[in-house]
Write a structure and sequence with these properties.
Elements lengths: L2 H19 L4 H16 L3 E9 L2 E8 L10 E3 L3 H9 L3 E3 L21 E9 L2 E10 L7 H19 L18 E4 L1 E4 L2 E8 L14 H25 L5 H14 L2 H12 L4 H16 L5 H22 L13 E5 L4 H7 L5 E4 L7 H9 L3 E3 L4 H4 L5 E5 L4 E4 L3 H23 L14 E6 L6 H6 L3 E6 L1 H5 L7 H15 L3 E5 L27 H6 L1 H15 L4 E8 L2 H20 L8 E7 L2 H4 L3 H6 L2 E4 L1 H8 L18 H17 L2 E4 L7 H9 L4 E4 L1 H11 L4 H13 L6 H11 L1
Parallel strand pairs: 9-10, 10-11, 11-12, 15-16, 15-22, 16-17, 17-18, 18-19, 19-20, 20-21
Antiparallel strand pairs: 1-2, 1-6, 2-3, 4-5, 5-6, 7-14, 8-12, 9-13, 13-14
The chain binds phosphoenolpyruvate and magnesium ion.
Length: 747
């Protein structure tokens, strides 16, 4: 880049700043800017298009096109060259625009006489806000320098749009972050909540995108980069060698912090007249725009690292910390790009809901949100760019929807839904201390699933008889290093204390597949759900499992101990796991520790193979618990994490019902206790069908105990079984329609 183009560019930005500083309406500002750019770049036309809604762009200002077309000419996303720039986020540079694919002729603008076209996206943090276009009559390709200059201008326009500098009469010129926005995400945890946005990572605001003195700005950038590098080095010294994944992220940080390419691009932006922070943000925006298009998850992660690093650099430059001083609102709904389980746990139950831009159903954050019983929506695209601290927000975890700044009608309808749920809760509270006895007099034992100390207070309120599944991995997932035996023993003892004598079934560590411990060496597996997970890890490397078993024995300290092993696929795995427990009991006895008053050892039935295990297996296990989430995924060969298939097969499908029936019969033969602890146990219709098939014990999320009990108390299992059997005889694929029809008739 020549000195001359640099100073031309700086001059243009300088004039742009003057144009922006002048008083006047947004429209006047935009008009001045288009005239200025056309003049500086020596083009016949300069136009600015801004989004009026998510799909439509509006011509908001022009120099050179017919002025009457302003606010009249509109373009759909993807339509014409302007629509293409907006849709792809990529510039279009053409010496012969009318011949370009997708060119759209708009007679009202009189544009057919303009041959060359350069359009660049007006982008902020990867979000396209509009399109900046220059056109000329003569056929010319715009040079790299010209493109760059226009991109820099577009960046400034984006900042100023965000700051509300272009508000006016056109639909495209309404203030940002004021409209109602509906974001469709994916259910992470059911439930509905109304509250105000609380941003986990508040955005840095750049108020001075243009700077006069490039030397001073370069100096500021270099000082900030030095500080950044030092802080990364400092973080590295604080991470111990065992914390490999964290170390990898920091290595990536260090690489970016020292990247010459990154620094050079920012230096060039500054030479063009941007301030240091605007230069950082311009490159961050470009990286974000790439992020969505990179298919490789590893590279996408690295772009995230660069994004995080840019945020750090911006904070150093602007002095704006993580804390913006924004107070936690009364009903906080946490909005974040993503969040770790420990951080989410820190917020705890003060949150009314959580909305994540990324995340997955099986992510650790989702597991914690479930444990905290707060509605969670994941994959809520662009929520962190749309939402401002304090914005009104409705989270519909059932549908995976987020209403940001909802209009009254939407908010009222939503409140009705919450009120109905609250009424139902009251109804459930009234039967809390009553048994889950069906009309035919069968009593079903309802237990709750838990995984954190925070879950235990629900034991009393929910009416559950105890904890049917305590997922011990959560204690491992929320830490950044392996917990120690004494720590675990004290947590488990706390759980037993809180249960006040009610039965608690501890499941040993179930890691692998989607549950990866941050401090354990990640293993590359072609198919993790079918790989080295749960009991397979426990038996292959028994050190951690044995330590956990010791902690459990010590926690019991004279009280009954109930342990089950996850993901047992064949008898020999159970035998070996049980031997480990028996050996640890012996060892603890020899060390003079107090023994549990009784020990029950069970297995989770999560693979179809175990349903066909030898009779001796059913005889030796004290109890079995069907892990329906995994059993269903393996029975139907449908990944429980994969949105495309995970809802494809109905639990009430006759094949799955047949499987359940078979397991019930096998357990009946040997008198083995059987329960069901997958998510389906907490769905009332599924739960009554499981009971009709012979299950007498169900374990579910605490919030489901009430609804399940409520329905159980209204059905006759004998009648229901007849309905199910007759649907099966008639060749139904699923018994659901018949069951629903029966319920509609009888309840
Ligand atoms: C299951 O698979 O049904 C189960 C209860 O275990 P998890 O969901 O923890 O895999
Ligand atoms: Mg499971």
């Amino acid at each position: 880049m020549s000195q001359q183009t640099e100073s031309e560019s700086r001059k243009l930005l300088g004039r742009l700043r003057d144009a922006l500083a002048d008083h006047g309406e947004g429209q006047e500002r935009l008009d001045r800017i288009t005239a200025l750019i056309a003049g500086s770049m020596d083009t016949h036309v300069c136009s600015i298009y801004l989004f009026r809604d998510a799909d439509t762009l509006e011509l908001c200002a022009t120099e050179g096109l017919n002025p009457a077309a302003v606010h009249q000419t509109r373009m759909r996303l993807g339509e014409g060259l302007v629509g293409r720039v907006a849709k792809t986020g990529q510039l279009v540079n053409s010496a012969n625009a009318p011949q370009e694919r997708g060119f759209r002729f708009m007679p009202e603008t009189g544009e057919e006489i303009f041959t060359s076209f350069l359009g660049v996206p007006i982008q902020r943090l990867g979000e396209t806000l509009g399109v900046l276009v220059v056109q000329s009559k003569n056929a010319r390709e715009f040079s790299d320098d010209e493109i760059y200059a226009l991109e820099v201008v577009a960046m400034v326009l984006a900042e100023m749009t965000e700051l509300g500098a272009f508000m006016g009469v056109g639909e495209g010129m309404t203030a940002r972050h004021t409209h109602q926005v509906l974001i469709r995400g994916v259910t992470g945890q059911e439930g509905a909540a109304e509250g105000q946005v609380y941003l986990h990572e508040p955005r840095v605001v750049v108020t001075n995108p243009i700077a006069d003195d490039p030397h001073a700005e370069l100096g500021r950038l270099h000082i900030a980069l030095d500080k950044l590098r030092l802080s990364v080095d400092d973080m590295m010294t604080r991470v111990s060698a065992g914390e490999k994944e964290q170390m990898e992220v920091l290595e990536a940080y260090r690489m970016f912090a020292n990247s010459r390419g990154w620094m050079r691009r920012m230096e060039e932006d500054i030479a063009r007249g941007l301030s240091a922070e605007a230069a950082v943000e311009k490159e961050q925006s470009a990286a974000r725009a790439r992020m969505g298009k990179v298919p490789d998850p590893y590279l996408r992660e690295r772009l995230h690292d660069l994004d995080d690093l840019s945020n750090r650099l911006l904070r150093i430059l602007t002095g704006q910390g993580r804390e913006t001083g924004a107070e936690m609102p009364e009903n906080p709904i946490l909005v974040a790009r993503n969040i770790g389980p420990a951080e989410l746990l820190d917020y705890g139950r003060s949150l009314k809901g959580v909305v994540l831009e990324e995340g997955s159903v099986g992510s650790h954050a989702a597991v914690v949100a479930r444990a905290l019983a707060i509605p969670l929506v994941i994959n809520a695209k662009r929520v962190t760019t749309e939402a401002l601290n304090g914005d009104a927000i409705l989270v519909d975890g059932d549908q995976g929807l987020v209403h940001l700044r909802p209009e009254d009608a939407v908010a009222n309808a939503f409140r009705d839904k919450i009120a109905m749920q609250a009424q139902a809760l009251q109804r459930y509270a009234s039967i809390r201390d009553k048994p889950a006895r069906t009309l035919c007099g069968t009593e079903i034992s309802l237990y709750m699933n838990a995984g954190l100390m925070a879950d235990l207070p629900s034991l009393e309120g929910s009416g559950a008889l105890g904890v049917g599944l305590f997922r011990t991995e959560l204690q491992f997932l929320v830490r950044n290093k392996m917990p120690r035996r004494a720590e675990l023993a004290s947590i488990y003892a706390g759980v037993l204390d809180a249960a006040k004598g009610k039965r608690v079934t501890f499941r040993t560590l179930d890691i692998g597949s989607d549950k990866v411990l941050p401090y354990m060496k990640p293993t590359e597996e072609p198919n993790p759900a079918l790989g080295w997970r749960a009991i397979r890890v426990g038996l292959h490397k028994p050190g951690v499992m044995r330590m956990q078993l010791q902690a459990l024995i010590r926690a019991a300290n004279g009280r009954p101990l109930t342990v089950m092993f996850p993901f047992i696929a064949q008898q020999e795995e159970f035998v070996t796991a049980r031997d480990h427990l028996l050996r640890e009991l012996e060892r603890e006895r020899s060390l003079d520790h107090v023994m549990p008053s009784s020990v029950e050892i069970g297995a989770m039935l999560e693979t179809p193979s175990l349903a066909f295990a030898p009779r001796s297996f059913f005889e030796m296990t004290d109890f079995l618990s069907i892990g329906g989430n995994d059993l269903k995924q393996f029975f139907f060969a449908a990944d429980r994490e994969n949105e495309r298939v995970r809802r494809r097969y109905d639990t009430l499908n006759v094949s799955f019902m047949g499987m359940i029936e078979h397991v019930v019969a096998r357990c009946a033969e040997t008198g083995t206790d059987l329960s069901f602890c997958g998510e389906d146990a907490g769905r009332p219709v599924e739960a009554i069908c499981l009971a009709a098939m012979g299950l007498r014990s169900l374990s579910m999320r605490p919030a489901s105990v009430g609804p399940v009990k409520h329905l159980l108390r209204q059905v006759d299992l004998g009648h229901l079984k007849t309905v199910i059997d007759s649907a099966r005889q008639q060749g139904a694929q699923t018994v659901r329609p018949a069951v629903l029809a029966y319920l509609a008739k009888t309840i």
